[in-house]
Amino acid sequence: MPITTDDLQELRDKLGERFVTDQRAIEPYGKDMSWMLPEGEPLGAVFADRTEDVSIALAWANAHKVPVSVRTGGSGLAGGAVSYPGGLIIALHNMNRILEIDHENGIAVVEPGIINAQLNKELAKEGFFFAPDPASASMCSVGGNIATNAGGLRAVCHGVTINWVRALEVVLADGRVIHVGSKTIKNVSSLNLKELFIGSEGTLGVITQAVIRIEPLNQYDNYTFFACFDSAEDAGYATVMLRACEPRPVSLELIDALGVELVNKRNPDLQIPQPGAALLLGQAEGENAKRVVEEYAQVCREYGATAVQFEEGTRLFQVRRDAYPALSANGMQVIGDVSVPISRLAEAIHGIEEISVKRGRKVSILAHAGDGNIHPIVECGEGTEEAAEAESLLDEVCRMAIGMEGVVSGEHGIGHLKHAEIDHLLSPDTRSVQRAIKQALDPNNILTPGRKI
Questions:
Q1: What is the mean pLDDT of residues 157-174?
Q2: Strand segments (E) across 182-300
């Protein structure tokens, strides 16, 4: 049945000013950083301050069968946070507190809206760090990191977000609040529900609190190296060998020549040499970091690097953080997120280059190379037709990755934009199991419907 003014007043009575229906005020919270836009106006937005607000909002939405979109930092690239016509937005950016830092147990308790870089700034004051480090760390939220199981720049050595989450507080579709996981290192006391919600993109519940693992900061300075290659494939082969080194690189990133060129224009102070085809960027940490980086550099030379440079600190990594904004500002705006087995990284890069030529559309490549996670970024002009053409190219990249025993998303999530690819990736039986879990937790299908699952 249509939502009435009395229905809206019911929610306003419970949430007061935290429930907003002014479309001008809520418009920024109905989209993310993908090209996807809302297809109609939502009913309103709940700007939650606490778990109780989320519980009230979901119980109301469930009772009235209103679709819900969930947004924290808004840095998503798959359309997962885009609002629904006649839907309810739950915005979590005000839930951004660090509730506890426990030195003895190496954990922190945080709310979902805290920005990744801000969390690490505060943890550094206590001598700790949280390892997941997306290139968008200055804007992405920890809740979003958990919802998509983000990887980032340190994943080669330190793993992805799931490796750093001990426990979660989750509000279910009907407003019930559950706690999964624990503060302990070991726990086999119940079904492993925590992992069910990590990477679920808001389709099974809304995360309102997380217990995360933190580690002491390295007391030694990191060393960073870069190597220029005339072939992106050669950079891929070098990556395979570098990943097999001991110790393993902390980070191992690839930026193609166009990305480097545009970053240099955007930030000339970096003074990064222009590669013929691709730049491989890596980092080592620990007491022997300088010696280790020199060994990495030699491996790169053996695999065709034309120039190699290294220096103390992390300054050079700004080229990776600046790469997507620089490309996006120059018309390269539709980004993919496939992952392939490391051994097939070079083959996948070659395949993307062939697809670009065949389609007659420019594609730039960024990659968390050490993870086999490739971000092809496609040239896209104005209008939905251009965006659809760019997405069609990425669909072909996704199917190429599946053919290499890869996946269609390594860390950005499925959201709306990759939803059509799931049937190519998963078997009907696997899909039916996913839907059964969704049905059990969200029988009215109000939580981020039509996405991920």
A1: 97
A2: 206-213, 215-216, 223-229, 251-256, 278-284
Nearest residue to 172 (alpha-carbon basis) of 141, 196, 149: 196
Tokens 């085809």 — which residue? 277
Q: What is the architecture of the domain spanning 5-91?
A: 2-Layer Sandwich (3.30)
Q: Measured between alpha carbons, how far is 272 from 144 in angstroms, rounded to an integer?
A: 31
User: Is the overall model pTM greater than 0.85, yes or no?
Assistant: yes
Nearest Cα to Cα of residue 200 among 144, 141, 249, 281: 144
H-assigned helices in 329-403 = 345-359, 384-403
Rounded CA separation 366/254 (Å): 6
* 80 Cβ contact partners less than 8 Å away, ≥ 6 residues apart: 32, 147, 148, 201, 202, 413, 414, 415, 416, 448, 451, 452
Q: What is the CATH number assigned to the segment(s) 331-424?
A: 3.30.70.2740
Amino acid identity for residue 323 in this structure: A
Indicate the average pLDDT of the chain.
Answer: 95
Going by pLDDT thresholds of 50, 70 and 90, the confidence category of residue 182 is very high
* Secondary structure (3-state) at 267: coil
CATH topology of domain 223-322: Alpha-Beta Plaits (3.30.70)
Q: In CATH terms, are 5-91 and 223-322 the same topology?
A: no
Q: Among 392, 394, 329, 386, which residue's Cα sits nearest to residue 365?
A: 394
CATH number of 98-216: 3.30.465.10
d(CA 236, CA 216): 32
The three-state secondary structure class of 329 is coil
